[in-house]
Design a protein that fits this description.
Structural class: alpha+beta
Radius of gyration: 17 Å
Shape: globular
Oligomer: single chain
Largest sheet: 4 strands, antiparallel
Length: 155
């Protein structure tokens, strides 16, 4: 008799479906408590879940963010949609289209009007206690195409 042994790590990590639930969840929070509650929820989530990344940003600077985004878009199976411009104290990220928004729509869901905050609030929170700041330069709610800037705060 043969026995098959599998571990969870043997399975493909399917990160995108998390975003379908997040999309529905932020609509629910907004409906009950308002947009500020969505932002606070995402900020609290970021401070807890991304604590190791935040510490790495404090230690390694903007390169830690670049590494994170390369990793993230690789697991989203869309490394071709992201590009970077980097300077000593600045990292600009261009996203041609958001694979998450594409996936949410392919599942027959509408993207929450607050979905932009999954980029804006999370990125602001990632750098709030670091020497860096974040600015959303542009964002297309239909496609998620964006231009984002992380930069060194003025002293």
């Amino acid at each position: 008799m043969e026995k098959m042994v599998r571990k969870a790590s043997d399975n493909k990590y399917f990160h995108r479906h998390f975003h379908v639930g997040l999309n529905l969840g932020i609509d629910y929070i907004a409906e009950l408590f308002g947009e500020d509650a969505v932002k606070e929820y995402l900020a609290q989530y970021t401070r807890v879940y991304h604590k190791p990344l935040i510490e790495k940003i404090k230690k390694d600077g903007l390169n830690a963010l670049r590494e994170y985004f390369v990793w993230l878009y690789t697991i989203e199976e869309a490394p071709e949609v992201i590009s970077f411009e980097a300077g000593d104290d600045e990292l600009i990220i261009d996203i041609e289209k958001c694979p998450v928004i594409e996936y949410i729509k392919s599942e027959g869901e509408k993207t929450s009007p607050f979905f932009i905050e999954t980029t804006n609030t999370i990125n602001k929170t990632l750098v709030e206690d670091t020497p860096y700041a974040f600015k959303m330069i542009s964002y297309d709610k239909q496609t998620g195409k964006s231009r984002q800037r992380f930069y060194k705060k003025e002293a």
